[in-house]
Write a structure and sequence with these properties.
heterodimer, A: 420 residues, mainly alpha, B: 259 residues, two-stranded antiparallel ribbon, 8 helices, 4 strands, 40% helix, 5% strand, globular
Chain lengths: 420, 259
Amino acid sequence: MSDHDYRPKSKVGQWFNDRLPLLTLANHLTDYPTPKNLNYWWTFGGILTFCLITQIVTGLTLAMHYIAHADMAFESVEHIMRDVNYGWLIRYIHANGASMFFLAVYIHIFRSLFYGSYKSPREIIWILGIIIYLLMMAAAFMGYVLPWGQMSFWGATVITNLFSAIPLVGEGIVTWLWGGYSVDNPTLTRFFTLHYLIPFLILGLVVLHIWALHVPGNNNPVGIDIKKPSKDTVPFHPYIVIKDGFALLMFMIVFAFFVFYAPNILGHADNYIEANPMVTPAHIVPEWYLLPFYAILRSVPDKLLGVVAMLSAILILAVLPWLDTSKIRSAVFRPLYKQFYWILVADVLILGYVGAMPAEGLYLLIARVATAYYFLHFLVILPVLGFKEKTLPMPLSITEPVLGGSPNLAAARNKESKIE
Amino acid sequence: MKNLLKLFSITIIIIASNSYTFAAEKVEYLKTDWSFKGLFGKFDRASLQRGYQVYTEVCASCHSMKYLSYRNLAEQGGPEFSEAQAKAIAASFEVTDGPNSDGEMFTRPGKLSDKFVMPYDNVKAAQAANGGAYPPDMSVLVKARGGGVDYIYSLLQGYEEAPSNVSLDDGVYYNKYMYGNKIRMAAPLSDGLVEYGDGTNATVEQMSKDVTTFLMWSAEPHLEARHQMGFKAIVYLIILTVLVYFSMKKIWSRVESEV
């Protein structure tokens, strides 16, 4: 990386940069050598940054009008929807923004799984990502409680009750979490406090995530290291900036469609009924992005083991870099892994589907099989595959497959020779 | 571009797999053409005004609408009564105010800034008057029910003689669209129940449509503004996306790489 040679042109710039090298940082970020063969699946990092900032900005605005009190929360949300200028817009962006955030993070995670981005030397980036994902789930869950609708209340009751599965101290922990003997005002105020705090923790972790990324640099679709930076990479600005920008705009069109034309389709109708501790909804379901884990939780007949299974399903990802024994990163050169990857994708989608269904009969059976397969994939298939699989021959450099596969090869060569 | 298509299809799959809320209800609701659906959907002003009439003459005797104020009736995107009309509507209600300087509560005619007057003082009073069932607040009712407007519209017309194998307790009625088919509300509408000022024939179907339209507005008072802004925002985004796409192609043409 060329950071070390960087020196600001102006005297003032030099004076400032010698004391606080912000300009060096800015220069590093602009010049950051990025593999030129990144595809659109790599644009979701930027999209996620956008999602986080959108959630923080809209969230701050909502917090100015929201009242965290069991008797007033529901009404204050209606106040935002009706009487605050553009309150409906801000709230719908925030509510749908959570779904968009998860949509993007799932694509980001599955991109990493496909191209082996979690493997050496990028394990720390991956683990930081898993922590961010966990915090996102906590923030989303607590945020869903704040409008104090029926699903808010009963979702909070179900999820906090999971802690009662812990032997001996479980009940005590639940009372401590609630701040009382049921989900009530103290629960709401602490959830609001934590919901406000977590996004800033995420922001800090995102900085570390990007920092850790900038040490080895990006992985790429062929999954091999950069051989010649001049040949294999492009500077982040303008190449990646404009490409990320283009993808972000596409993403924003989908986002805008939800906000303006289907703002409630991803939510549950029951959450427009004010919380009522005396009436339990027919089906208590979490938001769509938590459904696969909800399915895993319910597929285990024992409460404690169910909670353990659900947590393991997430935490197992943290040790993924050591469970996957294959030295080859990209699934492009791993014909068997590629197939298992798509089975895993289908498996998670199925878990999401049965998570939304009542846990009985055929649905329960499917949930159990899918849960078992989920763990089988990480604990058995991945470790074994690394030893058994015959991988395809790797290209020598990033540039090679790019040129070989390009239908514009002749045109590109021509252009280059003209410039020279 | 092929990858982008894949991405879009995955988005669709996720959305489709999430439509469980709707898949769960297998009853076919009655359909009608709602003017507020679609990209440019707007409320039918006359229908909203008639709907308000049905609400206030029929529903309001049991159902509150606590998040609405009389001023809302004159606001843009709603029934758009004139300010004078809205003032007259407000003044026709007795509002409890106070305490005054003697510490006494008193009643006065309603003002535009007042919330809709509640039919009962509290939930217990409402339950006592309705055989134990609480008539839900109607402000966001449409959004609080799985089938939305179609469900409410159907429910109002769904009263039938109970099939012979269903036994009903006193004060319970059979409705083919109600969850579990049993409802504590007697059929609220009958032909000619209200007399529309604009001469529209007040059939049950017409009244159901009008009052449901009114309920959609009460749940989403800024729906028209949302649709208008949405169209502009999306057109703007599409134009910008196209411009950025060509800029991107131009910039990337400097390197031998596909984008």
